[in-house]
Amino acid sequence: MNQSHLLDVAPVDASEYAAIEDLCREVIATDQTTLVLQGEAIVFLEAAARGLGRPGGRALNLVSGPYGRIFGEWLSEAGSEVENLVVPFDRAVRPEEVEKALERSGPVDVVSLVHAEAATGVVNDVAAIAELARSRGALVVVDSVAAVGAEPLAIDAWQLDLVVLSAQKALAGPSGVSVATVSPRAWAALAGAPAPWRGSVLSLLDWRDRWAGAGRSVLPVIPSHLETRALGAAMGRVRAEGLDRVVARHRAAGRATRAALVPLGLEPWAREASEAASVATLVRAPAEGAPALVKAARAAAEDLAAPIGPAPGPLAERAVRVNHTGRRASLTTVWSALAALARGLGSLGYEADLAAALAGATDAWYAALG
């Protein structure tokens, strides 16, 4: 394919950039400062942690997966005293656990958590946890990269202070640009640090002062033109479909997959259905391990573009991930994953009732969509 025409595309200017930012704000339905940032989301999660962490600061960091653990490390490196509330990676952090931790630890200035972990397939109750944090005057910082578009996210109603988002998962967009929403309280905390980050890619204050608070007339960076426009295109698709509908598709895909596991002789990784994330479903692997099941499934189902693979990170040997994510949040995706898993199990010597699995998935899909 001749792609030379891509070199002729005019660069993104300040007005187009601002319009894409406004579209993001509209889609996620917030009145907070909304920034489109250049880089993968983990850069700005680190920016949030290093901007809010400080000597003398105290934070409660909730860990239900690998990304939560990393955020706590950054807060600590910035000088904060961090209590990590760690739970097994097959369940969520329960609000009652957060309440007890807050009572035990005394005043904290930050409560941080991951909304949904694509690496574990678990979702946390952000609304309830945020209410507890606010009742004690703490800022609420949320990594919603894997959750936005797959789970309800009410930034303003839940009074979340700093949320980092990306279109790369449920919104079926690019990974090279990110979005952050920042409340007035969070801006005040960032500016009130003993040594605020300045002149750095990790400085959210620079974005405020040179862009959001300066009329958005001159871009403070040279943007990635294609990635930025891809974000705008993804947000345009989501607006056309409706964010609620995107969330509903992901929920239906998650419930359909989970409903089909028993006939296949498998178990979900997230033990409680109410704590299972909708962005992807993790499945406990048989004795042979996740890589062996995935390899067998792919070998036995060459005609199926099965969206399965070993879970990323620490669960790679123990869990298989079904990626019903983004445009794959569909019943046909679930069917293809189940067929591949059934064939793979069969080749490993296990009995799997594919017909019952498909029927259960179909019933659960339509029940979820009402």
| Radius of gyration, in angstroms, nearest whole number | 21 Å
Question: What's the helix-strand series?
Answer: HEHEHEHEEEHEEEHHHHEEHEEHH
Distance between the termini: 43 Å
- Strand fraction equals 5-15%
Q: Please give the count of helices.
A: 12
CATH superfamily of the largest domain: Type I PLP-dependent aspartate aminotransferase-like (Major domain)
Work out the number of β strands. 13
| Overall average residue pLDDT | 94
Count of discrete structural domains? 2
Multimerization status: single chain
Which strand order does the major sheet show? 1-9-8-7-4-2-3
**Any idea of the CATH class of the largest domain?**
Alpha Beta
- Classify the fold: give the CATH topology of the largest domain: Aspartate Aminotransferase, domain 2
The global form is globular
Helix content class? 40-55%
Named at the architecture level, the CATH assignment of the largest domain is 3-Layer(aba) Sandwich
The major β-sheet equals:
7 strands, mixed
